Amino acid sequence: MTEGDREPGRTKDGRQKGGAMVDKPLDELTAALRALLPADSVITDPVRLRTYECDGLTYHRATPGVVVLPETAEQIAGVVRACNDFGVPFVARGSGTGLSGGALPRQDGVLIVTSKMRRVLEIDLPNRRAVVEPGVTNLAITEAVRDQGYYYAPTPPASRSARSAATWRRTPAAPTASNTASRSTTSKPARSSPPTATW
To answer: In sequence order, what E strands does 16-149 have?
Structure first.
């Protein structure tokens, strides 16, 4: 495409300047995504798209071209394959609670939101390991192991919404007359080695 052939307001690759991408690849990809996902899981309405234009770092914003809300790993795989087939970029997002702009969407691409994927798949207490879907919150992991005397210890304010790796700890015993003297050590459980969490 030469400078003379280019439509006003578009870049060399056909993207609209200063707004969400509306060129043919994204339109065709959107149709393919609707065939892969439930109708309410593909968002193109401009007003609804603005919900996803930033994460906790609100200084940087970008309205995504399309938002999808898959519910299974297979659906995510299908979305990623479709993006690859059409040459459209994508960004993954959980709850958008990050403070570094890591979930900033592309105006010319797809935002894959994993908040509907909330299953705890496996709890391995001896190895302090959990296998969960990416939409599971830190608090939900604590609720899954509370009966066994454990809790999941992320940054406290993020426990209800954040979806990030943190530390397994056993719930400390309440102080008694016999252990008050050593309270400084019993109130913070010892960690022999850094535990891991698989997402």
So the answer is: 42-43, 66-68, 90-93, 110-113, 120-124, 129-132
Give the integer Cα–Cα distance in Å for 54 and 61: 5
DSSP string, 17-51: TTS---SHHHHHHHHHHHHHS-GGGEE--HHHHGG
Q: Which of 117, 176, 128 is nearest to 151 (CA)?
A: 128
- Rounded to an integer, what distance in angstroms lies between the CA atom of residue 137 and that of residue 54? 19
Segment 132-190, tens digit of pLDDT: 999 998 889 999 999 999 988 766 555 555 554 444 555 554 444 433 333 333 233 33
Here the tokens at position 184 are 């400084």
Contact 95, 118 (CB under 8 A): no
Kindly report, residue by residue over 50-107, the tens digit of the pLDDT: 999 998 888 899 999 999 999 999 999 999 999 999 999 999 999 888 888 888 999 9
Cβ-contact 143, 159 below 8 angstroms = no
Q: Spell out a b/e string for 133-145, using b for 16 or more CB atoms within 10 Å of the CB, else e.
A: bbbbbbbbbbebb
Of the candidates 135, 151, 153, the one whose C-alpha atom is nearest the C-alpha of residue 143 is 151
* 130 Cβ contact partners less than 8 Å away, ≥ 6 residues apart: 120, 122, 123, 124, 141, 144, 145, 152, 197, 198
User: Against a cut of 0.85, is the pTM above it?
Assistant: no
